[in-house]
Specification:
Elements (H helix, E strand, L loop, with lengths): L11 E7 L17 H7 L3 E3 L2 E2 L5 H10 L3 H4 L16 H7 L3 E6 L10 E2 L4 H6 L4 E4 L9 E2 L1 H9 L2 H12 L21 H15 L6 E6 L40 H9 L5 H30 L7 E7 L18 H4 E2 L1 E4 L8 E3 L3 E2 H10 L8 H8 L4 E5 L2 E6 L2 E5 L5 E6 L10 H4 L1 H6 L1 H20 L9
Helix pairs in contact: 8-10
């Protein structure tokens, strides 16, 4: 009689997430700049080169991270002041209930950041969502009104009021050149948010248990603006050594007046100059290299642990950053710069045969598969098999849907009607709307027709489930 296969040993996971890291600037298989830690991880694991967020806005994307649900299922499809209920679905709670020790350091944005308060008051909620330990930090803008362990450190160092005054000068008047001006941070290097988060992450990494599996989630607040990259990283990159922003497609102005992309692009018209965009792109590149250095520190810390070969590592971001593409900054659009994010997964012990997937994959699904796969030793193959079964990726924003399958992208309105479509294989800069510029191809191509049918089914499902969690959005 054959002996039963031995039970798989559960794996640990070091999950590293970023805020606003665009996927094309984090693709280790086609690097835009030197990111040795990211590239080293990719050489030992699985890279989804076309990983897509669930939303180009922070709040819905981050709610999807934790719950495994799409924004429309949550009833939160754009940034809003919302607090996740204690009994909401939680992939982390699932792990905790199976015996994992769970810790998070950094940004969550699972609670309202609209009014002054102390994030440490959220500890009971975070415990209910499945975290044994939590050191929470707000994003750069919200730190002008929210308190946390980081602002306490600023206060102890005598820089709290100076930093908050600087943030208020940038963002108090809304969109203005002050908001995207590039200038050095007023903070000491050790209190720069991403450097501070990395150090707290290292401390937690050293303290993770050795007698049970664990999840350590280190969630950086960068590269969210203001980048304000400090020395020694500031000035490492020049805009003329980086990819140029994509031109503004003429077809955007021909979209229906209520279309999200048309409204966003119109709101930026005349707001930013080419020189300002160039300065932001160079500063963003500097900040990515700062973050890559923090990732390297975490990986070095992990290597010192006796359970390092039983620990997987995953790296991703909530959404991208337009950086002047189509004349826009920030996010809130279905263009590639805003919706494509990095995804790298290194299984425990790494692999001598790194793999890359070039098909569009949904971040929500990748993250859920990685977390649930820890019980089966965190191997890479189940993630690859799951990726091979996917029909494509879906992104949601407001009432609109974006469908991605192969090289094709199709945006639909709230009624499931096509808004615009591009073929990334022929048009990687998204300058041609196939619907209006190539009507015969749009009408008769079997591939486009299949994508439209898929969109019709998804739109009907979205309408049916949109208010499943509607109380979250009130």
């Amino acid at each position: 009689m054959a002996r039963p296969a031995p039970a798989a040993s559960p794996a640990n996971l070091l999950l590293v997430t970023f805020d606003q890291w665009r996927g094309d600037w984090g693709d280790p298989w086609a690097p835009v700049l030197e990111l040795p830690a990211l590239e080293g991880l990719a050489q030992q694991g699985f890279t989804a080169r076309r990983c897509y967020t669930s939303s180009p806005h922070c709040v819905p994307a981050r709610l999807s991270w934790l719950t495994g649900l799409m924004p429309s299922q949550l009833g939160v499809t754009r940034n809003t002041s919302v607090t996740l209920p204690a009994d909401a679905p939680s992939l982390v709670r699932e792990l905790q209930q199976q015996g994992w020790h769970t810790t998070l350091v950094g940004k969550t944005h699972w609670t309202s950041h609209g009014s002054p308060r102390d994030l440490r008051d959220d500890q009971p909620l975070m415990a209910a969502l499945g975290f044994d330990q939590m050191t929470e930090v707000a994003g750069p803008r919200a730190l002008r009104r929210l308190s946390c362990a980081l602002t306490e450190a600023w206060q102890a160092a005598g820089v709290l009021e100076q930093q908050r005054a600087d943030l208020e000068a940038r963002y108090g008047a809304g969109r203005s050149p002050a908001a995207w001006a590039v200038r050095p941070s007023v903070l000491p290097l050790a209190l720069y948010p991403d450097i501070w988060i990395a150090q707290r992450g290292l401390e937690q990494l050293a303290a993770m248990p050795s007698d049970r599996p664990w999840l350590l989630w280190v969630s950086f607040v960068g590269p969210h603006e203001p980048f304000d990259t400090p020395a020694p990283w500031h000035g490492r990159n020049r805009a003329d050594g980086l990819p140029a922003p994509t031109p503004t497609p003429g077809w955007i102005g021909q979209l229906p007046a209520g279309c999200e992309l048309r409204q966003s692009q119109a709101s930026w018209a005349g707001q930013i100059t080419g020189d300002q965009i160039s300065a932001c792109r160079a500063d963003y590149a500097d900040h990515l290299q700062l973050l890559d250095a923090q990732l390297a520190l975490l990986l070095e810390g992990l290597a010192q642990r006796g359970d390092a070969t039983r620990t997987a590592v995953a790296v991703t971001a909530d959404h991208g950053e337009l950086l002047g593409d189509a004349g826009m900054l920030y996010k809130g659009a279905f263009l590639e710069g805003a919706v494509r994010v990095p995804w790298i997964y290194r299984p425990p012990g790494g692999t001598a045969q790194p793999q890359a997937c070039n098909a569009p994959l949904a971040l929500t699904g990748l993250l859920a598969q990685a977390l649930r796969g820890l019980a089966g030793s965190g191997a890479m193959q189940p993630l690859q098999r799951w990726a091979a079964t996917q029909r494509g990726a879906v992104v949601e924003f407001g009432s609109e849907l974006l469908l991605l399958r192969g090289p094709r992208k199709l945006a639909l309105d709230g009624r499931g009607q096509p808004l615009w479509a591009v073929h990334l294989g022929r048009d990687p800069q998204e300058q041609t709307n196939v619907i209006s510029s190539q009507p015969s191809r749009w009408s008769f191509s079997p591939a486009w027709r299949r994508l439209r049918r898929w969109g019709s089914r998804l739109s009907a499902q979205q309408t049916a489930t949109h208010w499943l969690w509607r109380d979250l959005g009130r």
